[in-house]
Amino acid sequence: MSQQMFKAIQKHAKPYQSAHDLETILDEVDDAKFVLLGEASHGTSEFYSIRAELTKRLIQEKGFSVIAVEGDWPSCQQINRYVKGYHTEQNGVRDVLQSAFKRWPTWMWANEDIANLIGWLKKFNQEKQVDQKIGFYGIDVYSMWESLEEIMNYLKETEPRGANLALAKKAFNCFEPYNRSVEKYAVSSAFYSKGCVEEVSKLLTSIRTQAMDNADEEENELNMKINALVLKNAEHYYRTMVESDSESWNIRDMHMVETINELRNYFGDESKVIVWAHNTHVGDATATDMKEEGTINVGQIIREQNKEEDVYIVGFGTHHGTVIAAEEWGLNMEKMTVPPAIEGSWEDLLHQAGANNKIVVFNHNNRHLFKETVGHRAIGVVYHPQYESYGNYVPSVIGDRYDAFVYIDETEALQPLTRTHVHL
User: Fold this and answer.
1) pLDDT tens, 370-394?
2) Is the peptide bond before 105 cis (omega within 30 degrees of 0)?
3) Residues 75, 142: contact at Cβ < 8 Å?
4) Could you give the residue ranges of the DSSP H alpha helices within 317-419?
5) Which of 46, 155, 172, 354 has its CA 20 to 30 A from that of 4?
6) How far apart, in whole angstroms, are the C-alpha atoms of residue 404 and residue 304?
7) Residue 97 pLDDT greater than 60, yes or no
8) Partners of 266 in the beta sheet?
9) pLDDT in tens, 267-277
C-alpha cells in the first residue's frame, strides 16, 4: 500500500453522506464550461443517481444547458424531444425510455435512475422559454443505420426532389447489401472493397454547407447535421475496428468530442455542457497507460482544446457491491457481485482509509500527493468478476486523471426498466 497516498486520502477526503455534500465539487467547478462526469461501470445505481443530483445542481446554480451522454444520437433525440416538449405524446417517461433505447445494452439508459432525471428535466423545461430549455443528446458513434434512416425519412418529407435526398439514397444503396450487419460491412470494407466512404463524405459536406429552409425551433437542422456526422464517423469506425482496436477507439472518442463541439457551435460559445460517460472516456488518458498504446479519449481532448479552468472532470468508483452487466456481448443482463477491490488499487486505498463514502478533490494544493501510478477499476457492459484482476484495472495517476473523485464504498446494481431479461 502506498503510505503517501493513503495518508493523503485520510487528510483530504471529505465525507459524502447526502446530496448536500456535493457542494464540495460545485465550489471547485467555479465557471467551467465543461463538466465531465464519469462512472466505473454502466450498471451501478449510485453512479447514475449522484450524477443526476450533480447535473440538477449544475443546471440550477451554474447555468448548464446541454447534457451529452454516451448514448446513440437518434435514441437520445427521442428523449430530447420529450423533455423539450416538441411532441405532445402522452406516454409516460418510462414508456418513452423503453421505446427509445432498444439497442443492447438497453439498461444503460432505460433504467429507473435515468427515468427520474428525465422526469425532472421535463418538468423543469415546462416553465422555460424555448432558448432556456435543457437538452439531452447522445454523442456515441454506433447508430450508423439508424442515423441514415433518420436522414432519409426527414428528407423524403421536406426535400423530396432535393440534392441531399439524392445523396442520401446513394449512401443507402451502398450500405443496403450488408443487411444492417456492421460486422459484414466492417470485414468487407476492410479487406474486399473501398466501402461507402465517398457516399457518406459527400452527404455530410452537402448537409453542412446547405442551409435548411425549414429549420425551426425543434432543432431539425442540428439533428440532420449530427446524424450525417454519425454516419460518416460510424462508417470510419466500423471499417477500422477489424484492423486496429486503438485506432477505432480513437475514432469513437474523437467523434464524441466533435459532437460536443457541434452542440456548442449550435447553442453558442457561452453554452455549458455536462458530459456523462465511463471513466475510461472522461478520465484524461494521458494520466493512464492508454497513452503508451497511442489511445486518446474525451477527457484528454477536451482539456487540450480548452483553457484549464474551463474543464472539470469527476471520476466515480466503488470498493464492492453489485452491478448490472452481461457475460458476453449481446447476452442477457445479470445482477453480478462486484468483489472487493484488489489490494493496492485506488479503490482499495480509499476503502482502507475508511470504509465510508467520500469525495476527494484534486487541486493545486494537493494534486502532487496523488501522483503515484495505481490500478483503477473499470467495469464494462461485459464483465467477469472472477477474472477482474487480469484486466479490469487501468494504471492511473489519479490526481492528473481527474479533478475530483466520488467514492461509494458499497454500491447497488441499477434497476432496468424491464426486468424480463435480467437474471437476479
Assistant:
1) 999 999 999 999 999 999 887 899 9
2) yes
3) no
4) 346-352, 398-401
5) 46
6) 18
7) yes
8) none
9) 999 999 999 99
Distance CA 367, CA 361 (A): 9
Phi, psi angles (nearest 5°) of residue 275: -110, 130
Average pLDDT over residues 225-252: 92
Interatomic CA distance for residues 4 and 370, integer angstroms: 8
Other Cβ atoms closer than 10 A to 268: 9
46-92 pLDDT, tens digit per residue, is: 999 999 999 999 999 999 999 999 999 999 999 999 999 987 666 89
For residue 125, the number of C-alpha atoms closer than 13 Å in the C-beta half-sphere is 22
**Matching residue, cell 486518446:** 296
Tell me which residue of 209, 214, 258 sits closest to 232, measured CA to CA: 258
- Three-state SS at 125: helix
Using only C-alpha atoms, what is the Rg of the chain?
A: 21
Q: What are phi and psi of 323, to 5 degrees?
A: -155, 150
Give the DSSP letter string of 242-284.
TT-HHHHHHHHHHHHHHHHHHHHHHH-TT--EEEE--HHHHS-
Nine-digit cell string for 297: 479519449
Q: What span, in angstroms and rounded, lies between the C-alpha atoms of 286 and 294?
A: 10
Straight-line distance from the first to the last Cα atom of the chain, in angstroms, rounded to the nearest whole number = 35
Distance CA 46, CA 166 (A): 47
Give strand pairing partners of 288: 396
Residues 6+ apart with CB under 8 A from 218: 81, 86
